[in-house]
Amino acid sequence: MSEFDRFLEANEAFISGFTEGDLPLPPSRHVAVVACMDARLHPTSALGIALGESHIIRNAGGRITDDTIRSLVISQQLLETREIVVLHHTDCGMLSFTNDELVSIVNKELHQDVHNHDFLPFSNLEQSVIDDVNQLAKSPLILPGTPISGAIYDVKTGHVSEILRK
Amino acid sequence: MSEFDRFLEANEAFISGFTEGDLPLPPSRHVAVVACMDARLHPTSALGIALGESHIIRNAGGRITDDTIRSLVISQQLLETREIVVLHHTDCGMLSFTNDELVSIVNKELHQDVHNHDFLPFSNLEQSVIDDVNQLAKSPLILPGTPISGAIYDVKTGHVSEILRK
């Protein structure tokens, strides 16, 4: 049985209790969260986000990339969000490799040359949050004056620690 | 009170019931989900995903971009995922604008010229899922033979409908 089949089966149980079919498209709390894709982090649970309340953008590391900015422009300019929270976490996979190492793995496993790719690993977790918040704060495509916060989720305790606010 | 403050407050309640501090880094179900950032979609709830089970990548539309591929390479090559599910949804914001319209809005609101940006809107929801699954299937950076499925979540009913499998 594929995981997709298991998802479809689990969805049958989900819809039997579904009562939130009339929510508006713009997030009701006017906030967008940028978080890591990590399996041990469910931003909705950890931050108390109910259905309809917040955009949630996720990628490897919770990094700010061209695609994150694309999503945030749509979020702010079309869907009325006015605050951004960046959420990285302890024991992140991005702390465990360098670009050179991943280039070498991709070359061996997929026979592809990706030496010109930046996979955006980092060696200092707190600094990665600071860097990403600062990158958002200086982006000309983010609404001036947007409150932007950065935090770290501890996968061992579930605790979210504030790192900085802009 | 900022939304970030409300998140920190909600996190206090979350950690009081937290018992999952010993999960391994690789997702236990070896699957990665690519989904839209929409506030009305919580992939973990809709698909029955528990903490530790699945990578979840999200952006505007749940589209396949260079950054999605970056995340999936890390997911597959370093963290052992072997299946991908693409999840778009009804009433998506990506159905509501064209690149020209958003370029015009960004020019007016932010005084920035983004005519060379593709914000990846779509006019046909089902086709957007097919396109993104096909793009993954033909990517040289995705492991050959990876099962890739595409589905649509109905924001009115919570129901997930299969569109295609590769």
UniProtKB/TrEMBL annotation, chains A, B:
Pfam families: Pro_CA
Keyword Transmembrane helix appears in the UniProt entry: no
GO molecular function: carbonate dehydratase activity
Catalysed reactions listed for this entry: hydrogencarbonate + H(+) = CO2 + H2O
SMART domains noted in UniProt: Pro_CA
CDD domains named in the record: beta_CA_cladeD
Cofactor field: Zn(2+)
Alphabetic keyword roster: Lyase, Metal-binding, Zinc
EC number(s) stated in the UniProt entry for this protein: 4.2.1.1
Enzyme's top EC category: lyase
Family statement: Belongs to the beta-class carbonic anhydrase family.
Protein name per its UniProtKB record: carbonic anhydrase
